[in-house]
Structure formats: C-alpha cells, structure tokens
Design a protein that fits this description.
By secondary structure, the chain is of the alpha/beta class. Helices cover 44% and strands 17% of the residues. A seven-stranded parallel β-sheet has the order 3-2-4-1-5-6-7, sandwiched between helices. Strand 5, helix 6 and strand 6 form a beta-alpha-beta unit. Helix 18 crosses helix 19.
C-alpha cells in the first residue's frame, strides 16, 4: 500500500473553473511535501496524441517544485471506452499512471476529469468519485456559481457534499468558485459546513482571470506569431475590428485591445503603432492580421519595433473575429501575471492552515529553495506590509510589482512622475491598477519630508533649500517614507547603484 497522500479535485457542477483550485492546492502543497506530483486523468488532447501534452500538465511541469506531472488518457479516448462499456479500462489506465507518480512523490494532486461541455456531467462526476475511491484520495469538491443566484449555489453545495459522501469518498472541503462580487458576502453567509463541519471556501469571479492572453488566444485560433513573441502574455481586455477610417478607429481604441485588421491596411497598422508610442494614447494588447495578406515590407519592418505582438491568420476578417469571440480564458494557457492573480484569489479566500489539516498531509522534512521562497511569500502575505519602490519607471520593477499585487503579497508604492510611470506601464503591457504612485516632485508629504531631512542633516549644514533638492531624489524620498512610518520597507537597486540606494539610509536611519 502506497504511503502517498492523494488529493482529488472533483468538479460537482458545470463551469467550475476548477483549474484555479487545482493550481492553488499545488501552491499550498509545495510547503507541505518533500515531493509533489500532478495527475490529470482525462487529458485535453486528441485520441492519437500523448496525454502528457495536455496544456495544464505542461504548465505544472514548467512551474518549480513539482516532481512529476502526467496525463493518463485523452478525453476523446475515455469517451469512446465509456461508450463501449469499458469503464474498467479507464479506471485501469488512470490507476496505473497514478501508481507511477505515487512511487515518486509524497503527495499527488489529481485534477478531476472534465468533459467541459456539461452534457456528460453525471457520467463525469461518477467517474471522478470512483477514481477517488480507487486511489484512496481525499476529495476537494468544486462548485461553479457563475450566473447563479445565491440560493441555487447553496443548494449545489449541499448536493455536492451529500453526493461525495454517499459515494464513500473522504471529503476535505468544498470550494465555491466564480461567485459574483455582488453576491460574495451573501454567499459566504448562506453556505454552511454541514453536520461534520467540513469547510466551504468561497472564491470571487475575477475579471483578470476571464481575459485570455494574446498568446493563448493566438494558439486557440491557430494564428502565427509574426513579431513580438516575447510579449504574448499581455491580457486582451477588448477586441476592435478596424473597419473604418483611422480617425474614427483611434477614438475606439483602448488599452489592452486586440486590433483585428487585414494585412494591407497600412494606415491602421501605422496609426496603431503611433498610438502605442504616444504619451497619453492607448496601447493595444496586440494586432491580428487577417486575409493571409502580409504587410508592405516597410510597414512590416516598423511593426517589428512595436511594443505589442503581431499575429497573422489566413482567414478573412469576419471569420477571424468570430473565432476570437469564441475564445475563453484558460488558466492552462495563462501567463505569469494571470497565474499570480489566480493564486492571490485562492489564498485570500481559503484558510490554508485549516485546509492542510483537513487533508492530513505528511509533514515535510526538507527545506528546498522552492519551499523556502514559497514560505517567504506566504509569511509576507500573512503580515501584509507597505513597501516603497523608488524605481517606478523601471519596466522590471513594474512587472514585479504587478505580480506581487496580484498575489496579494504586500501593498506597494511606486515613486515617479505618474504620467511617466503610466506610459512605461502601458508600453510594456503592465497593469498597475491598485498600486499607489507618488511623485517626489509634487507629493503631498514633500514639505514635511524637507523639514525632516533638514533637521536630520543640520549637523552637516543642510538648510531647507538644500533639503528640498535632496528629497527630489527617489531613493531619498523612499527612505524618508520608511523613516516617517509611511512605508514599512524599501526595495531598490534595479536601476541604481548599491551606494545610491544605501547612502540615504545611512544618513537618515
């Protein structure tokens, strides 16, 4: 008998968005197991494809801290076997793959089968609970609440708990996912733990998780990457079809828009590029060229310098727009920013200590670099602090700030001219919503900071005029924020020397 602990994520309704829960559990388990494996019983691949090519399996493999990740059988092949009455063969294939993983790991996380279209929900649920019993797994049931009234969601939770227990499974918790923010408080107040006190966690519907990335969208419709392959993780917030004159088109263009246009519309392409490079004008998420028409070589050369990716599709503009409209965000195809948002949502809504106790996981005995980094993040999030980042116009700092904010690790303040900060963020596809930006040249605390600096440096002959000049430096301004209790810490050094970063701290603190 294997001593491996197995946690099985079971979708109890259609449209659960359970990948968020699975990824959240994987993140939690990195702190509680020396070795961690991942299994997807029914892989999202074709009947003749390797189940290990499943996008979610590939994503887990890319992320640190997982010993192994496997798919057992394709959805198409499982459908065929079930239709033939060969249910035992599906069980056998899944258990065999699990056994290989269990030999390598202390904990195996199983992402339950999902036929996606909801038409086989009953068959799917039965298959999941049967497999959970075969694997001796602890079950985390997931209920989808998108578009449902609170009363309906509560009924779904009660039914999921009843059916999982009736199947003889060990139920650890129920997660309600994709709850409308307007119904969040009512849902949390209405769902109950049941007679056995099993926790019910309620996760909100989050707009950032419903937006596909340019890269994910391109893969979904079979588009070719023409340029900007390193910028494919930009979120697509809207879609704009360029079927009008440029002056009218630009009034409709917004930050994060995917522009769909024939490849020979040089006017639209140049105008879109100009907008992305002009201060105060929108920066699109990307451009999709249609009709199988390549832009003029001169225009193509200019587009290669664009701050957004360019994709191409042979279909006509109408067909391309229809294909784009059918694409839905998929966490398995998501970039680092979206994954950070997903993990932030999961950790904010769940009591991970309680969940780990319910899952009765083995205690980790080794401190690996991955676990060390993970525990630092968890400790920071649990003792949320306000951190000032002086290098507010540095693209790497902005990208890191967005990730930390999405994960809910700390509260952040960027220093710099707000217009310049916003321009850099837009050109690099960074979303700084929710992050404070303070301009040392005009900030409300500037006068107070100048007097404090003059007081602290009076023994060096510093007067108020010199103090005003000194605090215009971002490192000095950030250090004074820490000194006066307006921030708990400062992180700098990406664009400044160590001496420039440390000198104000030695002088003032």
């Amino acid at each position: 008998m294997s001593s491996t602990r197995t946690v099985y994520v079971v979708p109890a309704t259609a449209g659960t968005g359970k990948s968020l829960v699975t990824l959240g559990l994987l993140d939690v388990m990195r702190s509680h197991a020396d070795s961690l494996a991942f299994l997807r019983p029914l892989a999202a691949t074709g009947p003749d494809e390797d189940p290990d090519d499943d996008p979610l399996v590939a994503l887990v493999r890319r992320r640190p801290g997982t010993t192994a990740a496997r798919g057992a059988i394709s959805r198409a092949e499982a459908r065929s076997l079930l239709a033939q009455g060969r249910r035992a063969e599906v069980h056998r294939r899944c258990v065999a793959t699990w056994s290989e993983l269990a030999a390598q790991a202390d904990v195996v996380i199983v992402d339950g089968s999902d036929f996606e279209d909801g038409r086989d929900l009953g068959v799917e649920f039965d298959l999941n609970v049967e497999l959970a019993n075969h694997l001796g797994a602890v079950v985390v049931a997931v209920v989808g609440a998108s578009g449902h009234e609170v009363a309906t969601t509560v009924e779904s939770v009660d039914l999921a708990r009843k059916e999982v227990l009736a199947a003889g499974c060990s139920l650890a918790a129920v997660v309600v996912n994709r709850v409308s923010p307007a119904d969040l408080d009512a849902t949390r107040a209405s769902v109950h733990r049941g007679a056995s006190g099993r926790p019910v966690y309620v996760l909100p519907e989050t707009p950032e998780l419903t937006r596909p990335s340019v890269g994910g969208l391109g893969r979904a419709i079979g588009a070719e990457v023409v340029s900007g392959g390193d910028r494919l993780d930009r979120d697509v917030r809207s879609v704009r079809v360029a079927a009008m004159n440029v002056e009218h088109f630009l009034t409709l263009l917004g930050d994060g828009a995917l522009v769909i246009t024939p490849g020979d519309r040089a006017d639209v392409l140049v105008a879109t590029l100009a907008s992305s490079l002009s201060s105060g004008l929108p920066v699109p998420a990307g451009v999709l060229l249609t009709g199988g028409i390549a832009p003029h070589p001169v225009v193509a050369g200019i587009l290669r310098e664009a701050p957004f990716p360019v994709l191409a599709l042979d279909e006509d503009t109408y067909t391309a727009a229809r294909a784009v409209a059918d694409v839905r965000a998929d966490l398995a195809q998501a970039g680092p920013r979206t994954l950070a948002t997903a993990l932030g949502v999961f950790h904010a809504a769940t009591d991970t200590d309680e969940l780990v106790a319910r899952l009765a996981l083995p205690r980790a005995v080794r401190m690996t670099p991955v676990r060390f980094a993970h525990e630092l993040v968890q400790r920071a999030a649990a003792q949320r602090r306000r951190i000032v980042l002086p290098e507010g116009t540095e693209p790497r700092i902005q990208a890191a700030a967005e990730i930390l904010h999405r994960r809910g690790v700390c509260d952040l303040v960027l220093l710099g001219d707000p217009a310049a900060v916003a321009e850099v963020a837009a050109s690099h596809g960074v979303d700084l919503t929710g992050i404070d930006v303070v301009d040392p040249a005009t900030g409300d605390e500037r006068e107070r900071f100048a007097h404090e600096y003059a007081r602290l440096r009076a023994h060096r002959g510093v007067d108020l005029e010199r103090a005003h000049d000194a605090i215009s430096d971002v490192s000095c301004f950030g250090t004074l924020m820490v000194h006066l209790g307006l921030a708990d810490g400062m992180v700098s050094g990406a664009a400044h020397t160590t001496a420039h970063t440390i000198r104000p701290a030695l002088q003032l603190i």
